[in-house]
Amino acid sequence: MEIKIQNLVKQYGKNTVLNIPELTINSGELVGLVGNNGAGKTTLMRLMLDLIEATEGYVETDGQRVDEDAAWKTFTGSFIDGRFLIDFYTPEEYFAFIARAYDIDKATLDSRLEQYRPLMHDEILGTKKYLRQFSEGNRQKTGIIGAMVINPKVLILDEPFNYLDPSSQITVAKLIRQMNEQLGTTVIISSHNLSFVSEISTRILLLEKGVVIKDLPNHDGSATKELEDYFNTAE
Amino acid sequence: MLKLLLRLWADQKRRDFKWGRFLGEAYFFALFMIVSCIVTFAIYEETGVAEGMEKIIPFIAAGIIIPDFINKLLMKHDETVMDHYLKSKPIPERTWNRFMLTTNLFSFWNWAIPILLLPFCVLFLKWQLILPSFLLLLGVSFVGGVAITAFCRARGWTNKWPVLVAMVIWQIFAFIYSFTSIVMPWWAHITGFLLLCVGGIAVFYNYLCDQRRYDESKARADRLFLGASSLFSMEYISVLRSKRMRVATLILPLVFIFNCYTQHINGLNVMFYLMLMFAVFAPSMMLGQWVFGIEGNYFDGLWTKPVSIREILSNKFRFFALLNILPTLLVIPLIWIAGLSPWLLLATWLFTAGFANLTLMPTALISSRLELFQSAFFNYQGASMAVNVYGLVVLVPLAIYCLCTWLLSPEVCAIIFSAVGIVGFALYPFVLGWLSRTYERRRYTCFERYRQ
Fold this sequence. Notes:
The complex is a heterodimer.
Chain A: E1 3-12, E2 15-25, E3 30-34, H1 41-48, E4 56-61, E5 64-65, E6 76-79, H2 91-101, H3 106-115, H4 117-120, H5 136-148, E7 154-158, H6 166-183, E8 186-190, H7 194-200, E9 203-208, E10 211-217, H8 224-234
Parallel strand pairs in A: 3-8, 3-9, 6-7, 7-8
Antiparallel strand pairs in A: 1-2, 1-4, 4-5, 9-10
Chain B: H1 2-16, H2 19-47, H3 56-63, H4 65-75, H5 84-87, H6 93-105, H7 108-124, H8 127-153, H9 156-179, H10 186-210, H11 231-241, H12 243-263, H13 270-288, H14 299-303, H15 309-330, H16 334-337, H17 342-360, H18 385-407, H19 410-441, H20 443-451
């Protein structure tokens, strides 16, 4: 699924936090959004998910404006933060709710959840705990699995490596790349973890104060050097 | 160290202080105070100052023990467990226990009932007896206050039961002791009673010190429900699993149902019917004043999934109608006890579920996110001027109901209420369709409100 951004501006008062005149994310790309705090990564994702109003411009997914047509919801999986989780549900109930919303039958759901067992470490399913009782790391995992379990055509994840232990970070990176390669999912992830982003992304967008200052193709980590130079300079 | 803890506590209180909340609480307390004064003056008018009125004080003190304890059980919320920040600092357990005891001195609920009884002391007692009488009431209240702190601190019912049993023993003991005021000199009796209070505080405080607690999140879910994957099940699960919603939805209807059973003695008058309408309407009224207040906690997740606003609103409307059935069922015995017309009862449910609930649905446009896991009592989180003003609209169905039951016969009322209710059920898809379109137009403002 292709994502197009046209003249996208987001302002809070007089402060412009995002300004992208034009950007196309091609179908099947795995795009990493990087940048320092306040660069506009999460704002861009929220606009892609129609969670905040664009001051100007729009985002199109599969040729439809996300703020005008809800069709994108049927093929988009996303996880931004804890507000995507239903705190009074257990993980099983949460996944079942998602499956129901996306018309996924129980057998399919169970077989898909099986793929995520290595990430769950037996700490999520069958624990008889509500989501609010989980650690941040396990909540993060639940949110990521909830986004991926629908086998989306577009996957949007904000800081997916946050709160995760090293082995889970590696597993999440693998799962994202696997989904992108096997299902052709268009993936957009944001992260401060440059090594993971440059390892799995096919394209990296570097944002600074709401503007895409570099659009780097990243085949076999070719963008790593440029990113390191930028962030070293930024320090 | 105790001083440091108290300063930290005071800072926290100052930071959390909200004028709106304070004035709201002050308003309610003032209302109670006015009622207390009126009742006291009425008694005074009737009896005047009789000799030996001070002899009643020990009985009053013994009489308030259990009601005061129940009141505190519902209202008084203590800091009884050190949070992780404090636990990781070199604060001795003994200091923390003293801190809990000291904060009891500042607890509003420990002062509330003695202050409410102060007009009685002032009006009926000689000036030199006012202070010791007030001190006795305060002492009794403090015993209950410390008992509540111990109760909150104790983990699990095995440790909580001894507090309840001790309270019952204290009540019996105080009651028996109060009879000795008939034979003992008043001053000696009051001194003895105060010493007993000190003893009571010491017992509960010692028990409190024995309780070891850590700030641990619950390890397991209380109970799990099957079939919790549909959008409709989200409605009842959110109520059952969040303390605030659960208590809010249960307590008020129970109060009104109780009122129905007591009110019918005076005949099936307009007051009875008002209580009946309130009883049936109360559960949905409590939840409906904040439509989407629960969903506000996870609306980002809902909005990014193929779930329509109209569907959520429809589920809510149906859930409210089901909720109204519960109190309706509970007042069925009044058909035999009080001669309540079964048709009017059915019509009341139809009117509430079909019409009154529909008037609640537009709060979806103005509601804020509700903190689900906080206490329900005196909790103003999520309240706003818009919600309060909209509360006046909710009075419309109540006013219609009262007017009809006042002016018309039960048979005519039943026909009118049924008709209005059925029309409401027929129109709700259109109303909710309009509402969902309006919500979608204003969604960004609503989302922003949930995030605040």
